[in-house]
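yo, Acetyl-coenzyme A synthetase is done. seq:
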Amino acid sequence: MSEQKVYPVDPAFAAKAHVDAAAYQAMYEQSINDPDAFWGEQGKRLDWFKPYTKVKNTTFDPHNVDIKWYEDGELNVAYNCLDRHLETRGDQVAIIWEGDDPGEDEKITYRDLYERVCRFANALKAKGVQKGDVVTLYMPMIPEAAVAMLACARIGAVHSIVFGGFSPEALAARIEGAKSKVVVTSNYSLRGGKAVPLKENVDKALDNHEAGKLIDTVFVVKRVDKDVAWNDNRDVWFDEMVANEPAECPAESMNAEAPLFILYTSGSTGAPKGLEHTTGGYLVYASMTHEAIFDYHEGDVYWCTADVGWVTGHSYIIYGPLANGATTLMFEGVPSYPDNSRFGRVIEKHKVNQFYTAPTAIRALMQQGEDVLGDADLSSLKLLGSVGEPINPEAWTWYHRVFGQGKCPIVDTWWQTETGGILIVPLPGATPAKPGSASRPFFGVQPALLDNEGNELEGEAEGSLVIKDSWPGQSRSIWGDHERFIQTYFSSFKGVYTTGDGARRDEDGYYWITGRVDDVINVSGHRMGTAEVESALVAHPAVAEAAVVGYPHDLKGQGIYVYVTLQTGYEQSDELMKELRGWVRQEIGPIASPDLIQFAPSMPKTRSGKIMRRILRKIAEDDFGALGDTSTLADPSVVDDLIENRMNRK
Ligand code: WT7
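structure:
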């Protein structure tokens, strides 16, 4: 690893950057030694209706995890993302919307966006939505998604976005978990030229589940000129509802610790958890990280290719950029439509300066060859970003060469739904990059590596990645279940936030994320709980037992490998394999679709009946030479059958 190529900071870039090496050092030290002074100062990047007098008040004590930032301050997120920009940049473009069809786009100024948000905020109120109510968004990447988020924020409602790729079942569970009263959706979504029936999915979620009893209004955006089934008691057209609403709506004064949104994500065990993010600290952190990490300057056009259904879309398409008065690009489509040069075409068309995407997309394009972007002019690009999973050095250097033309710094941003914003990253004007390493902590972030006993490791080491103290963007709780929040993140090791990732620290103090250390897998940068996939599988009549593990996948990073033991009376077949795959897609969504399914007559279990996942993981990785100790297995011969019939052979 010491021979690893290092990409030094370009002095010309550093000279103009918000943060250079000296500033990083000084600011980092202050952020750790005097967080109140540091974050007290940073809080001023927002407009407060009532200024805070306190800054940090946090404890990770497992008996009483309590995280508060700017706790006596009051502000409004929509006000900070819209109103305060009107005087100076009302006519500046806030959102460039690029449709699925390359012929379709729209430029929305700060003033337009402000008016659209006010109208929809009034429409929400007209339907009885009040401060603290939860509004579920199940939407494609269209401007109305941004409008709906900001409208909720404006009136103090809490949004819960459910990614449009999730199934009706998954949507229903999230509506029920959040006790939401209102859904915002569109009749269809458009991706890669195909119309996906979002409204029909909402109907299924509401008609077949308890969720139907909670929801009294469904706002429907007419994205595609097609009819959909209609329930007059519940459904209203978005456009009709906003048409007669005034373009003014007061921004509620919210306490800094009032909830802004809930976002569901998968964990090791149980159903997905609704992580809660609050108002003041979250926005300070999203704003500061967006500016410093992407080195955003006035007038730049910034593009993050994520979906608003994930946290990246929340913090780095909407809240961070708009708080900073940026021009943020929102893309409805996919990188391969109408062809694989699409990302390049969009960069050229809108003269994008900062481009932020995921390793899985980079690898898919890389497979298409060096000239995949055609003759697209990429010269506007100043910086590239990566997020979602470790970026392998080959993909990093390809990204640097083909997108970055050998000159753009790459920020490999490590963070999580729980962290609200980026925690580990090479700042582009300060930190030399090592391909594959997320490198160094952002301001206020104190990473540490622990061994299994919880001892902190010093110097070069590998262990569980934890964070020793709070930062303002951190999630405050799991919606309605603070005990589970404590249990999940603050109980394995005392007094620290446990990330669930493993990491290595090298001789220069750089962090290299090695992947999850829990039963979570990362498929194309999307988090999947193995327990969730297992429980979907055992709900199928043919399945007696299921075990799910990850395995290395060239494009997706990790693929989903499933071991299934059938109920007596069922025979293994290709048909059944197909059926099980379809079943999981239907229960959770296409992102959970198993890549490989192995029918296993029995699972490797300890004498006490516990499935030994370590062994299943090794076999799925096609790395069974060193299975470790199998002497505790009830029946060691099970392993031979599993190896013989393994699905992943290199
Ligand atoms: C998990 C969080 C953060 C937004 C997208 C995913 C993995 C994320 C990186 C990176 C290595 C990464 C981690 C983390 N991850 N970014 N730059 N390098 N790993 O959010 O769905 O909450 O998943 O994604 O394993 O724990 P998420």
